[in-house]
Amino acid sequence: MTVKVSVVIAVYNPGKYVEDCITGLLRQSLTPDEFEVLFVDDGSTDETPARLDRLAAEHPHIHVIHQEASGWSGKPRNTGIDAARGEYVMFADHDDWLGDEALERMYDYGKANNADVVVGKMAGIGRPVPQELFRVNRPRATVENAPLIDSLTPHKMFRREFLAQHGMRFKEGRRRLEDHVFVVEAYLRAESVAVLGDYLCYYHITRDDGSNAGFQRFDPAGYFDNLREALDVVEELTEPGPLRDKLFSRWLRVEMVERLRGNRLLKLPEDYAEELYREIRGVITERFGPGVFAGVAPTQRVVAGLVAAGHYQDVRALAHWEAGIRPTGTLDSLAWEGGVLNIGFTSEYQVDGEPMTFRREGEGEDERDLLGLPLSDKALEALAGQGITLDAPVDKSDVDLVVRHRENAVQYYLPVDCEPHRLDAEDGSFRQRITARAVLDPETAAAAKPLDKGIWDLHLRIKSCGWSKETRLGAVRGEDAEAGRLAALTGEPRRLVLPYWTDGPGNLSLDVDQHTNKLEREAVSLMDPAEAVVEGSAVRLPLPLHVAADAGDPVQLRFERKNVGKFPADAEVSGRTVSATLPLEKLTGKRWAVRIGVPSADRGEAKWTRLPVDVVVSDDGTARVIDRHTPPAGTASGKPDPMPSAQPRPLWRRAAGRIKRSLTNQQKKN
User: Fold this and answer.
1) Model's pTM, two decimal places?
2) Could you tell me what percentage of the chain is helix, strand and coil, using 3-state DSSP and rounding each to the nearest 5?
3) pLDDT in tens, 565-598
4) Where is this region: Disordered (predicted)?
5) φ and ψ at 329, to 5 degrees?
């Protein structure tokens, strides 16, 4: 059978971190005869070579190539390309892992679109990854119609014949940004690039020991010499003009300007920060013109202009000011409607705990909104000389609300309608506050599919004037948010979606399909036993629960007593109550714990949760509901429960106890 995909993994001393990579490969939905794995050991000195050799002996589609240490990942990746037999070559790092269906989905998507390059959706665990690129599937992406240039790591599929046709290989030796050089060349030479955005293919992690190669402090001179090589590729394969400027602006934005902003600059040793600044200034003044500057956001353009003009102290002053910027959000309302959770919220930037303000200048048609940045007069003059203004495009400010899985970091953007508002501040300045409404449908939020079981956290991102910062939502909230925080039964088969406040900060999260036992905790906080009602054999309990549809497995109540029995009853959910008919003939004369059985799609059956109430049924069949923590005063008939007489232990058990104690005492003496 033809090998569809060759997975090439450069390996050097990963230790325990290679295990997640291995596990992900062994879980692939492609059959072992449809793909191969090429671990290229670049002179590891830990136990990894032996671990991989054992793995290869157990799995014929896994191969290990040992070579002398080359110092970086370029040479082992090239060795993998040379040995590969697959139609496509996929590169992965030894401490990352693949989604279970990643290879199959990426291969099928690439074949369906005749793609030379296939880019699969990524999640960053402890590290940033591109977001905008993966909002949708992009079957025919280019650097002109999609933000491909934001994704320059090599963790993609490349058609092997395409690599051979153009003689494409990674730069070798100890160096940086060899992946940028390789990937940007692939983008510019490819006839077709396909972006798969509806399945999480690649998990890009930060190791807890902080030893990821890309996180190590680099030599600025060598780093930016390597960056110039990526710029050389762009110059070779594009004509001067808007496209080249657009591509160059990516390196200006990500590799240069963002390194000189806020705490990212201030946390560096001062001598290293100055060296970094000098090397960045060298590239900017050599290679970038006004068209490149125009391709970045206003605040980034200001930093670039300050660097070009040699105003390092103003760069640092601006970094100190930006370090105080914080996004804030207020959760105004929550409301379920037809199985959809409507989320109302307000957001605003603050600086050092106070609302960020903008200046107004001019009148009428000449009125301008300006950034209030702490810059010297000489810096402002230098910026003006480059045609760089402090105009603030606040009318373009926007917000995103993202739902993110806590364990695997997969995330989805929710539909949001937002409206920016201007609020007058002192001295003729103004604040900007954005009101928004997001819609979360648990059955379609995951790229038109249901959210997986688990804990999903909600993250608010404010985008304005070149700032894009994220915060959690819910710690600050209005009364309507608490009033609308109902659990909901949605989907087919039914499952529970429970909005709750996290411990400590009190942020908004969702427990989907009873991943935890939070329902019991929430039932305690939301249910007032005094509001329970018993009328004849009917009991109504105050449990806020929204039901999206009538179809599906029923909710049940169960009345149970240890060593006596468990008696379930179908329940009806209406508004904020759960009602059921008590099986009085089975409950008479006893006190019973109450559990609620809520359908679980993952379990295929109900999950039972203890409620904070008990039902007491007297000898005459009269029932009442009490707090479960009410101490037992006696049986329902008023007579105390007879204490069971203590039965003497059997002789054999008493003898065994003596022998055990004797052995224990002897061991202590020894």
Assistant:
1) 0.85
2) 30, 35, 35
3) 999 999 988 767 899 999 999 999 999 999 999 9
4) 625-651
5) -145, 145
